[in-house]
Design a protein that fits this description.
The complex is a heterodimer of chains A (643) and B (480). Chain A has 643 residues and is mainly alpha-helical. Chain A is built from 26 helices and 4 strands. The chains are: A mainly alpha (643), B mainly alpha (480). At the A-B interface, helix 25 and helix 26 of A face helix 6, helix 8, helix 9 and helix 12 of B.
């Protein structure tokens, strides 16, 4: 009952605001959606208490959903420690974003629609994290994808927003295709899509082979790689990450909720949830580690040189997701989920803070036209500092605890890929600190580069936007120190059976015994990064331009986001277009239409014209035709008799 | 001593003949002012005739020394003909008054033509066939040229007359050949003679070829259709409406009686000919209408196409086929009457009658009721379910497939597809084009005819049973 309410209250809000928003009005939609999501958030606290602290995990069967032959999927709520953590994250951040949006969207003409989408998203995300089988998880997975699409394209009159929405949907399609194939493979191998049944059967399929694409491959490796491709799409990992920066076209609260705190972490959640499968697939774990590490460093380098305030944070998200993945890759799922947990708070804080900045600058997002306003918007400034400190991994702030344990676990894995992840992670940590403070300095310090008119309007955001941020700020400060002992402490009892780690995978255990230099290194590089940022943007503001000039190629490479979009444009978009054009012009128009509908139609017109031309109007022509008819009849009879 | 023939089976024909003379007298005495009265009296006369036919439908007698037959088939066809003539007269009144053609001869000629048709339907001998045919044709020639001050009208009358005379000649020549090779003019006699012959007589087949050609001219089947578009376009519109209704029914009834009666025994020989007539009519009706801009001409081709479908039932030469054709004719009568009602209402506010497809533009906005009715008729003529036209086609296609005439059925279906184009184009013009100037409010009688036929067309699918059952009984009369 409790869990059912948590999951379905947002859906009720979405239905009310979505279908009856016209009657409810803006105010009514606010009350309905914010109220129900807040209720859901409040209820998730006792849920967390019962499940995570007291250990009462349970599966609530709601109703059978699909029964077709051997395929049986029920709608059930699987509530264990992992789910409980996600419930808290999703509902609390969602509630905060709902409240914040009241202020942020206050002059938008389509508010009921916006809040309906937000609530619908919350429901889909909750359905995802409470899933008890692959099908239900896929339902939530696609549901959040749909809401993401709708919300990115919320300002549908903007062509760039539409393009971004379509891009997000299509790139995710690639990942979802992998996920769907993975689910099919799970059903093919295990004859079930229930988590419990599958997890229980996994050990029996170690070292078995499956025929895939004509070759024999390790069963679990194939399945987990397919599933991981799905996670890569949703969590914007290297190769499938290109949609995330563009998704910033959506309203800022959407970026905070969907593209920072919750939906993009669904991939990490999925890997953690399926840890009983991934644990037996060594190769896949290696792959996860490498992909995560590469994403972390790649996104961080791009973040260095971006000028759009939201894009910087978007690449930072991408990079932090990489951290979570390589934590999972070295079997430290707990660390990955812990980072997910803290990240949700401080990244949502950063995004909403950025929203507040954008709000203050009358919609400006380019940091090159900001600066020097920290006195005018002190609350926002302070909140951004807290978010950056947490992100940078400064001690006592949330990010410090989670990022350190992630890096230590990578070191503690004592494997080749683990070392690679550690090195790249340390580098990315330095870059993260650098670009975070670059953002702070460019936005708030120095001479203002905004126009006089914009500057005149700079104002602090209303309380309805600031108060939610305070809550997130509290999370960004305390979430780490409070939950670190619980989530990743020496006592591993917290997670119960929700996360499974083979006894031979001891990365997390080793992490606690990492030498001091390993523990200190992230902090050192972070401080170095901050110092560099201060030097380059406060002390010597002319330096960045010179540096960019000196390393022109590298700068352009980063600025153009490693040319991923250009590469895809050449590889897929243009070739697909060329093929499409070929089939359209030559295949459809010239062949099918030419000989088919259009050809027939023009032949019909020809015949019609000829038939009409027979009608000359001369009586003797008509009489002649009649006589021909008679002759034809007579001939016919002669022919018959001849037979 | 010559026995006086039993005249009671021909009571309807006698009533019409006497009434026509009486009406003529009224017209002569009262002059042009009497037109309106004579029209309504004629409608009354035809209504009484319907009652006379229907009250004695369930008979099967031959009289006048075997020249004349009264059976259920005749009764069914006669009711259709009488209904068609009466309602065409109702539609014509407004036209006559507005176009200053108020002459009492008009209704009298219609009644006389109808009498000719009655005799055609009841003919049981080549001689009575010819008498009926000529009485009908001569009246129609005059009607076509009725607007004698109009060049087009007189031209159409003359064309019709010349070609009709040729067709009559062909028919008569065929009749003499048949008589020569069977020794009889009576349908029963011919059938008997053919049954007695051991092998096929080339002379009879030659005769049949000519008779078929003559009848094909009357129903306007390809390639004997050439007169139709010109005559339909040139004749005054109510006359055209009349042409496309009652005479079609009568000629098709006669066609069926001749082919299935005296020549029913050698059906295998003529099925090919009728199939060819049906196929070419359907195809030409579909294709040639596409290019037409004049709606009367378009309806001429449409009627050619529909004759093709009706002949398909004859080609099936089975009770089911005849039933199909009779149902087809019933439905055809209703939807064509309605369509002509709308066409007769295409009168601009300045009183000018227009007759191009483009003139219907945007009628949905200026005259929504008329446009909706026209849309129903057009969809029905195209054969879109669940309108009546679909069922008409359904029964004949069914009969054709039952008789193994698959190729014919396929051609029919394809022709329907092509034909839909020009019917639907009219709907498109009415509903989606920029409105042309509005039309005058039609007369009440016209509206009534349009409304009744539209409702019939729309709701036929709810109660097809009585019509189909009656047509079935009628068809059995041709297969003793």
């Amino acid at each position: 009952m409790l869990y059912g309410l948590i999951v379905f209250l947002p859906l009720i809000g979405a239905i009310l605001a979505g279908l009856f928003g016209r009657w409810l009005g803006d105010r009514g939609s606010h009350i309905v959606t914010c109220g129900l999501v807040t209720a859901s958030a409040l209820l998730s606290v006792p849920a967390f208490w019962f499940v995570a602290i007291q250990g009462n995990t349970q599966i609530v069967e709601l109703f059978p959903w699909i029964i077709s032959g051997e395929l049986e999927a029920s709608w059930a709520l699987r509530v264990d420690q992992l789910t409980a953590v996600m419930l808290v994250v999703v509902t609390s951040v969602s509630a905060v974003v709902h409240w914040y949006s009241i202020g942020y969207m206050h002059d938008d003409p389509h508010q009921p629609r916006f809040f309906a989408y937000l609530s619908l998203f919350t429901f889909a995300m909750l359905a995802l994290v409470t899933a008890d089988n692959f099908i239900q998880m896929f339902f939530g997975w696609e549901g959040v994808g749909l809401c993401s699409y709708l919300l990115i394209g919320f300002w549908y009159h903007k062509p760039s927003a539409n393009a971004a929405a379509i891009k997000a949907f299509i790139v995710n399609r690639v990942g979802d295709f992998g996920f769907a194939l993975g689910i099919c493979a799970v059903f093919f191998v295990f004859q079930s899509v229930e988590f419990d049944a599958v997890f229980e059967a996994v050990p029996r399929f170690v070292d078995t082979e499956i025929e895939f694409l004509g070759t024999h491959l390790d069963t679990l490796t194939v399945i987990t790689i397919l599933l991981f491709i799905g996670a890569m799409g949703k969590s914007a990992q290297i190769g499938l990450h290109t949609w995330l920066p563009d998704a910033m076209e959506g309203p800022t609260p959407v970026s905070a909720l969907i593209h920072a705190a919750t939906m993009v972490t669904a991939g990490v959640f999925m890997v953690a949830r399926l840890s009983p499968m991934f644990e037996y697939a060594e190769f896949t774990l290696m792959l996860v580690t490498i992909v995560g590490a590469l994403t972390a460093i790649m996104a961080a380098t791009i973040g260095l040189v971006q000028n759009d305030i939201k894009r910087v944070i978007a690449y930072s998200t991408c990079s932090q997701l990489g951290y979570m993945f390589f934590a999972c890759g070295v079997s430290a799922y707990q660390a990955g989920v812990f980072h997910l947990f803290t990240h949700a708070f401080f990244k949502a804080l950063l995004f909403l803070g950025a929203g507040s900045v954008i709000h203050a600058f009358s919609g400006e997002q380019d940091m090159r036209r900001m600066g020097g306003v920290w006195r005018m918007i002190p609350m926002t400034y302070a909140l951004m500092w807290i978010g950056s400190l947490a992100l940078g991994g400064i001690p006592l702030f949330a990010g410090f605890y989670s990022k350190d344990i992630v890096l230590e676990a990578a070191w503690g894995a004592h494997s080749g890929v683990g070392q690679l992840a550690f090195v790249l992670g340390i580098m990315a940590a330095g870059l993260t600190a650098f670009y975070s403070w670059r953002l702070l300095f460019m936005t708030f310090h120095g001479h203002s580069r905004a126009s006089h008119e914009v500057l005149h309007h700079v104002h602090e955001s209303p309380p309805v936007m600031i108060v939610p941020l305070l809550f997130l700020a509290a999370g960004a400060v305390f979430a780490g120190m409070l939950f670190a002992p619980l989530f990743v402490g020496d006592n591993h009892g917290f997670w119960g059976d929700s996360i499974f780690v083979l006894a031979s995978h001891t990365a997390l255990e080793e992490a606690h015994h990492a030498p001091l230099w390993v523990k200190l290194l992230p902090l050192v590089v972070a401080v170095t990064g901050i110092g560099t940022a201060y030097w380059m943007y406060i002390a010597r503001p002319e330096l960045p331009a010179r540096l960019a000039e000196q390393h022109r190629e590298l700068y352009r490479f980063f600025l153009n986001k490693w040319y991923w979009d250009e590469l895809y444009d050449i590889l897929f978009v243009r070739s697909a277009r060329a093929i499409g054009t070929f089939f359209w012009k030559k295949g459809d128009e010239a062949t099918i239409d030419g000989y088919g509908p259009n050809g027939v139609a023009s032949r019909v017109l020809d015949i019609a014209r000829r038939a009409a031309r027979l009608q000359t109007g001369y009586v003797y022509h008509y009489a002649f035709v009649m006589l021909i008819g008679v002759v034809a009849f007579v001939t016919w009879y002669l022919f018959i008799v001849g037979m | 001593m010559i026995e006086f023939p039993d005249i009671s089976p021909a009571i309807t024909e006698l009533w019409l003949a006497i009434a026509a003379m009486a009406l003529l007298l009224i017209g002569v005495v009262r002059g042009d002012r009497a037109t309106r009265m004579v029209v309504w009296l004629s409608v009354g006369v035809l209504a009484v005739a319907i009652w006379l036919v229907w009250s004695d439908a369930d008979t099967s007698v031959v009289t006048f020394s075997g020249l004349f037959v009264a059976d259920r088939f005749a009764a069914f066809a006669k009711v259709l003909v009488l209904l068609g003539s009466a309602l065409a007269l109702v539609l014509s009144l407004e036209f006559l008054e507005r176009e200053r053609l108020e002459r009492p001869e008009f209704p009298v000629l219609v009644v006389l033509a109808t009498l000719g048709m009655m005799i055609m339907i009841a003919a049981n001998d080549l001689l009575s066939l010819y008498v009926g045919l000529e009485l009908q044709s001569l009246s129609l020639y005059v009607l076509a040229a009725f607007n004698r001050d109009s060049e087009k009208s007189t031209e159409s009358g003359l064309k019709y007359f010349v070609l009709g005379a040729l067709a009559s000649g062909i028919l008569l020549y065929g009749a003499t050949l048949v008589y020569g090779f069977t020794g009889s003019t009576s349908f029963t006699g011919i059938a008997g003679a053919l049954a007695a012959q051991e092998e096929r007589s080339i002379g009879v087949l030659f005769g049949l070829a000519f008779v078929t050609a003559g009848l094909a001219f009357k129903v306007a089947a390809v390639p004997f259709h050439m007169w139709t578009p010109d005559v339909y376009e040139g004749a005054p519109t109510p006359v055209t409406a009349f042409f496309s209704l009652a005479p079609k029914v009568a000629a098709l009834a006669l066609f069926m009686r001749v082919m299935l009666g005296p020549f029913g025994g050698i059906a295998d020989d003529w099925v090919g000919i009728i199939g060819l007539l049906a196929a070419t009519s359907m195809v030409l009706g579909a294709f040639a209408a596409i290019g037409q801009t004049n709606i009367k001409r378009l309806m001429a081709y449409s009627s050619i196409g529909h004759v093709g479908y009706a002949l398909m039932g004859l080609a099936a030469h089975s009770p089911g086929g005849v039933r199909g054709t009779l149902v087809y004719l019933t439905i055809y009568l209703a939807m064509n009457l309605g369509a002509w009602g709308v066409i007769l209402s295409m009168r601009r506010t300045d009183g000018k009658l227009v007759e191009n497809v483009e003139d219907l533009a945007g009628m949905a906005r200026t005259r929504p009721f008329l446009a909706a009715a026209m849309a129903i008729f057009m969809f029905s003529l195209a054969g879109v379910p669940p309108l009546a036209g679909f069922f008409g086609k359904f029964y004949v296609f069914f009969a054709a497939v039952d008789a193994g005439l698959y190729l014919l059925a396929v051609i029919g279906v394809l022709a329907t597809v092509v034909g839909s184009y020009y019917y639907l184009r009219i709907v498109k013009v009415m509903y989606f084009d920029e409105p042309a100037p509005a039309f005058l409010q039609p007369a009440g009688a016209t509206i009534a005819v349009i409304a009744v036929t539209a409702i019939f067309t729309l709701l036929f699918f709810l109660f097809p049973a009585p019509f189909v059952a009656e047509a079935h009984l009628a068809s059995l009369a041709l297969f003793p």
